[in-house]
Amino acid sequence: MSWKLHHGAAIAAVALAMVAGCGVTAGAGSGSAGSDVSGRSLEVIGEWTGEEQANFQKVLNGFTARTHVKVTYTSGGNNVNILLNSRLTGGAPPDVALVPQPGVVAEYARKGMLVPLTGDAAAAVSTNYSDAWKQLGVVDGRLYGFFFKVANKSVVWYRTDDFRAAGARPPSTWDDFIDTSKTLADSGVTPIAVPAADGWPVTDWFENVYLRVAGSDKYAELAAHRLAWTDPTVVRALSVLGGYFGTPNMIEKGATQLTFTQAVADVFGERPKAAMLYEGDFVTGEIGKLGAARIGGDAKLFNFPSIDGSAPAVVSAGDEAVQFRDSPGARALMAYLASPEAARIWAQAGGFLSANSELDLSAYPDDSTRAMAQALVTSSVVQFDMSDQTPQSFGGQAGADEWRLLTDFVAHPGDPAGTAAALEAAATKDYGSRS
Question: How far does the signal peptide extend, from start to end residue (predicted)?
């Protein structure tokens, strides 16, 4: 991803023209001028709730203000794919959806459920996204989507008061991370909250450790199941994680019942129970909603630590905008979402990173967010969230096999080889059933 620090008046003018002009009038099947969308209505489905939903609504309001198209947002929460599958089965797809797994998007595309992007929407993606990000929206040679909201899922958040009281410093290596955690524990503070109840945060833990233990090539092979989950690199990564999770007094008790939202509150709320929380940039929105800690003051971050001398690396993720219904309004909305103007609205509200290379970093509200955005550029290795590339039954939805097995591993971390074997059995079943 190529972030540009400039964003002059000419670029803004082009983006506004795309949305307010050609992107608002579109001919059927092409995205060219010819059909007025004013007065029409659209539905968008996404996973966002709470603060994120409110901020995305601001983006949709910006589209409505320009086009007079009413947009209804429906949240599927953590079960967005279940909602989409139900709607598709019932013959009632939304106009547009934001899907958090490119593997799921590929399934939809290959089943003929998605509209390929053409015209103004495709042009906006070509203009505003790097080749690496554009390629993530391509299925079998055709562009079907783009990532509107992305995440840097390789940072650890911490309470500065707990670190100061314990005499702890932000670590840069895994060994230092263990030492810092022990220092916090010795001071009487639980080092870290691990929200295993939701499943996906534990897959993120594994992916960050695996990327640093095995490297980028094996990461990609494992994501595609060209490498078995019983490979020694997987067992090694699980051993690293298991050693940490299994150390007494290291993680907050009841991890398998702890949700992500509650974990944020347990670290940065009025009654903190732990000093650290691993997760992505989107934590900022939840911290802000609590109102008990200030980003950059009470709450700071450090990059996920290096393991065995691994180079700086980032696991990214995102919500891919795709089109299920072909209409001038849907094409106009896709072109708008691919513009820097749409990205800027949410960036200024906080809790957001964009893959849009034309978005000026100054749009982000604080140094922490700008640092996370910059890390996506400066890190030697950037990989997309592994579980989001897998079949839904393995890693793409609540209750998926990987989510379940890794949640169990948090509670019983003493058998990495056994967990690896169970993951391989599940992957063999789930990848084999993917069409």
Answer: 1-28
Alpha carbons 123 and 175: distance in angstroms, whole number: 47
Q: Are 373 and 385 in contact (CB under 8 A)?
A: no
Q: Contact, 107 vs 56, CB < 8 A?
A: no
- Token pair recorded at residue 32: 């060219």
Distance of CA 343 to the CA centre of its chain: 15
Domain boundaries along the sequence of the chain? 9-152+316-382, 155-315+387-432
For residue range 268-297, what is the model confidence (pLDDT) as tens digits? 999 999 999 999 988 988 998 899 999 999
The answer to whether 218 touches 224, Cβ cutoff 8 Å, is no
User: How many Å apart are CA 274 and CA 276, to the nearest integer?
Assistant: 6
As a CATH number, domain 155-315+387-432 is: 3.40.190.10
pLDDT in tens, 185-233: 999 999 999 999 999 999 999 999 999 999 989 998 999 999 999 999 9
Give the end-to-end CA distance of the chain in Å, rounded to a whole number. Answer: 30
Q: Helices 328-337 and 119-128: crossing angle, nearest 10°? A: 10
Residue 229: name the closest of 112, 111, 401 by CA.
401
Residue pair 279/266 in contact (Cβ under 8 Å)? The answer is no
Amino acid at 137: G
pTM listed for this prediction: 0.72
Counting as low any pLDDT under 70, the low residues of the chain are 1-36, 38-39, 377-378, 433-435
Q: Are 97 and 337 in contact (CB under 8 A)?
A: no
Strand partners, 147: 320
DSSP label at residue 182: H
